[in-house]
Write a structure and sequence with these properties.
The chain has 377 residues and is mainly alpha-helical. The protein contains 13 helices and four strands.
């Protein structure tokens, strides 16, 4: 295996990243403010990460086992249905600033977290497209970088309208990079894209029925936006189905780990934003399990197992994890010896809850002959 390579945004070869950012109208200057920069730079278990991988391994990937579906998907992405979607006729200036303080803080955290996740994809995909000699991979990751740069740029413009835009150029230099082997990138990004679709479409459908809770216009963009996320997930589903060993043997344990990690992270993070969810008119617990149900239905296209998120025992352990996370936060805030004890007991409780969910029985899933799905939720 080649050693992981750190992405250098200052490299003269970093053209794909620069072009993707420019195409989305991203301002890579230094006008970001401290509060949002601090949010974006956070390095916690729950915060979005920047990734690097074994770029040379991309050259050996063969999508011929799923060639027909692959070519259809690439043609669909090249058609660029959302080319004009991320345009605004007017600014969002004055909206975030006029929210009540707790809602403003939690909504800003939601936007920054979403923007950081989208931008990390843009950076990684741009580097993948630049480094690989595999024409299928080069095309795919150019298209993915294009979409993610638009998404990140759209959110950052929303933040800039409130005077709190993030300096994305500085973020690429200051954020730590986590090395993942390609197969772990596939598992993680597939789930990220599909659960992103499930989250956005659930909010969009809810607000269509309850427009009085649409406290910011950005939510009106969510439907077509999440269809981008869905298409991205389709690409990673095809990559995994093209290499069946990724879905067998010991890799089933990795699939279980990534499923649980993504669900657990979402559950804890969403429950840290009670005011945001109240403003949307949703209960975070009900919302999360609805999203899990949608995501589980989608992942049947590629994963041979699924978590029993509807089982009361599983849900009880998820709640234990949340309470342990809160003990950790309380211990950090308390400080001193008692705070340290509270924090360590929370860490132990979280580890136990996660382990019990990990070893909770799973359901078997027979993979369908056709991989592609349509965003019908």
């Amino acid at each position: 295996m080649n050693a992981p390579t750190k992405i250098d945004p200052n490299s003269p070869d970093h053209g794909e990243f620069s072009r993707a950012a420019a195409a989305a109208g991203l301002d890579l200057g230094s006008d970001g403010k401290l509060d949002t920069m601090a949010m974006a730079r956070q390095e916690t278990v729950l915060s979005p990460r920047f990734y690097t991988t074994d770029f040379a391994a991309l050259d050996a990937i063969d999508v011929n086992p799923v060639r027909a579906e692959w070519d259809d998907l690439i043609a669909e992405m090249q058609a660029d249905r959302n080319k004009l979607h991320f345009k605004r006729k007017e600014s969002f200036e004055g909206i975030i600033e006029n929210l009540e303080p707790d809602l403003r803080e939690e909504f800003t955290d939601f936007l920054v977290s979403s923007m950081t996740s989208e931008f990390s994809g843009c950076v990684l995909y741009s580097e993948m497209a630049r480094r690989t000699r595999n024409p299928d991979m080069k095309m795919l990751f150019k298209l993915l970088a294009r979409d993610e740069s638009r998404h990140a740029g759209f959110i950052n413009e929303t933040l800039k309208d409130a005077g709190i835009g993030v300096d994305l150029g500085f973020l690429t230099k200051s954020k730590k990079y986590t090395y993942f082997r390609p197969k772990f990138i596939w598992y993680a990004v597939y789930l990220s894209e599909k659960i992103g679709y499930a989250r956005y479409i659930t909010i969009f459908r809810h607000l269509a029925k309850h427009p009085e809770h649409r406290f910011h216009p950005i939510f009106s963009w969510f439907e077509e936006w999440c269809n981008d996320e869905f298409r991205h997930g389709e690409a990673f589903a095809l990559l995994m189905r093209a290499d069946p060993k990724l879905l067998k043997g010991g890799n089933r344990l990795w699939i279980r780990f990534f499923l649980l990690s993504v669900y657990a992270t979402m559950y804890v993070r969403d429950h840290s934003r009670p005011v945001f969810h109240k403003a949307l008119g949703v209960d975070p617990t009900e919302y999360d399990y609805k999203v899990f149900t949608v995501c589980t239905a989608i992942t049947r296209q590629v994963f041979p197992i699924e978590l029993e998120t509807d089982d009361p025992a599983f849900r009880a352990r998820m709640e234990d994890l949340l309470q342990s996370s809160r003990r950790i936060d309380a211990g950090k805030a308390r400080g001193g010896l008692m705070g340290a004890f509270q924090r360590y007991s929370g860490v132990a409780g979280a580890g136990l809850a996660f382990a019990r969910m990990y070893f909770h029985r799973t359901r078997e899933n027979a993979l369908p002959a056709s991989v592609r799905m349509q965003p019908s939720w």
